[in-house]
Automatic annotation (TrEMBL):
It comes from the Bacteria. GO terms for biological process: cellular response to phosphate starvation. This is histidine kinase. The lineage of its organism: Bacteria, Bacillati, Bacillota, Bacilli, Bacillales. PANTHER family: PHOSPHATE REGULON SENSOR PROTEIN PHOR (PTHR45453:SF1). InterPro entries: BphY/WalK/GraS-like, HATPase_C_sf, HATPase_dom, His_kinase_dom, HisK_dim/P_dom, HisK_dim/P_sf, Sig_transdc_His_kin-like_C. CDD domains: HisKA.
Length: 251
């Protein structure tokens, strides 16, 4: 029997069904990878905790060794809590519109909050963080601290990978406000840079959970911005957050 080819509206419906099926398949695959990665990240600290707990219970670790084991267990429990909290936050960012409470924010005051939190972190690692340039502006984004968390995720990542120095700048360019964070580290691995903002992606030097930059992207994009990363000519990494200007400059 000769195959009858779909035409006109039927053909359009067929194409739509195929596209939806492909999107569903991609979603299922991404969820599969997410749960695979999540289970691995959760399993690692749990195995460490279990190993030390059983060793202390059975008397294998005693005295200073037991004390050291307890300290490791506490650290791994805190790491586990961080992973779980970040997974929950990502789920909320993906599904809940009402967790955003948008209002106008003074960018200069916002960056001051970032610096107040970032300087002690940099000092603790014997690194320098400076604000090289700031163009004041008024932007509208979430007032509940989510954008602050997004920028701090980027800044702490830069501090961790920097050799000595991290620079933050805020400037306007082509009707866009740009918040840039630049470090003097080794840059981003080429095999990682295209998927850097995906969940559970870590560079060679690792990271705490592999979720911080994914959270930053989700918050920035939900706030109407764009986030991107690239290597600089000096081999460090540069992260840029871009917002289209709608309000007048406050200078």
């Amino acid at each position: 029997m000769e195959e009858i080819k779909a035409t006109g509206e039927i053909k359009e419906v067929e194409q739509s069904v195929v596209e939806m099926a492909n999107e569903l398949n991609n979603f299922i695959q991404s969820q599969h990878h997410f749960f695979q990665n999540a289970s691995h990240e959760l399993k690692t600290p749990l195995m460490t905790i279990q190993g030390y707990a059983e060793g202390i219970k059975d008397g294998i670790f005693e005295g200073e060794d037991a004390e050291r084991g307890l300290n490791v267990m506490v650290a791994e429990i805190n790491r586990l809590k961080k992973i779980i909290n970040e997974i929950i936050l990502l789920a909320k960012l993906d599904s809940e519109a009402d967790i955003y409470h948008v209002k106008k924010v003074n960018v200069e005051q916002f960056i001051e909050k970032v610096m107040e939190r970032a300087i002690p972190i940099a000092n603790d690692q014997n690194k320098e963080i400076i604000l090289t340039k700031i163009t004041n502006h008024i932007l509208s984004f979430d007032e509940g601290g989510k954008m602050l968390q997004a920028v701090m995720n980027i800044v702490t990542n830069a501090i961790r990978h920097a050799h000595q120095r991290v620079e933050i700048s805020v400037r306007t360019e082509n009707n866009q406000l740009r918040i840039e964070v630049v470090d003097d580290g080794n840059g981003i691995d080429e095999d990682v840079i295209q998927k850097l903002f995906h969940r559970f992606v870590k560079g060679k030097s690792g990271g705490e959970t592999g979720l911080g930059l994914a959270i930053a992207r989700a918050i920035v994009e939900r706030s109407g911005g764009i986030i991107k990363a690239e290597n600089t000519i000096n081999k460090g990494a540069k992260f840029s957050i871009l917002f289209t200007k709608h309000e007048k400059n406050t200078d």
